[in-house]
Design brief:
The protein is mostly helical. It contains five helices and no strands. The protein has a domain of 111 residues.
Length: 174
């Protein structure tokens, strides 16, 4: 320990002097009374969003919503596997010919594409929620609105919008 540290305090890193932020003496030196960032704390960005009630970070509602989105995406990817199996059966064992076969394959291909796009959207929305960034909140709200408007996920979209617009949830995004 050096002589400049207080008794019982460890020196982890040198004090950082911010330009334009003078200390108590007004000479640009760090203020000894000001708390210094601890080890591992990024400078200029809080470790987690802090609310007025003292709660920090991601709440249970955000984790549940992100988990629900990941579960829906996993279910959709499982559905893609089922649709691919149905497509293989249609090609090899079906009694459909010409236009009927072509129509069945076109319908299966469209359902596969919609399921893959929806799974990607749910995964992207879940990751956006976990970031706690304002852009992530907008992306999650946009996805919930899109799912509600298209009717594909109205059962998901309306409760998600209620959760995302709750003041306690909205305050967590900075």
């Amino acid at each position: 320990m050096s002589d400049s540290t207080r008794k019982g305090e460890r020196e982890f890193a040198p004090k950082i002097v911010y330009p334009g932020r003078p200390g108590a003496a007004g000479d640009g030196s760090p203020d000894p009374a000001a708390p210094s960032p601890g080890p591992g704390t990024p400078i200029g960005r809080p470790a987690a969003a802090e609310l007025e009630d003292g709660s920090r970070g991601r709440g249970l509602g955000l984790w549940l919503l992100a988990g629900l989105q990941i579960a829906i995406a996993a279910g959709l990817l499982g559905w893609v596997g089922t649709l691919n199996s149905a497509r293989g059966w249609e090609l090899e064992r079906s009694f459909d010919v010409d236009e009927e076969l072509q129509a069945a394959l076109t319908g299966l291909d469209l359902m596969i594409r919609v399921a893959v796009i929806a799974a990607g959207g749910f995964l992207l929305s879940a990751l956006a929620l976990i970031t706690l960034r304002r852009l992530g909140w907008f992306l999650a709200v946009g996805w919930a609105v899109l799912m509600t408007v298209t009717g594909l996920g109205a059962v998901y979209g309306l409760p998600a919008l209620v959760c995302l617009f709750a003041p306690s949830t909205r305050a967590r995004f900075h």
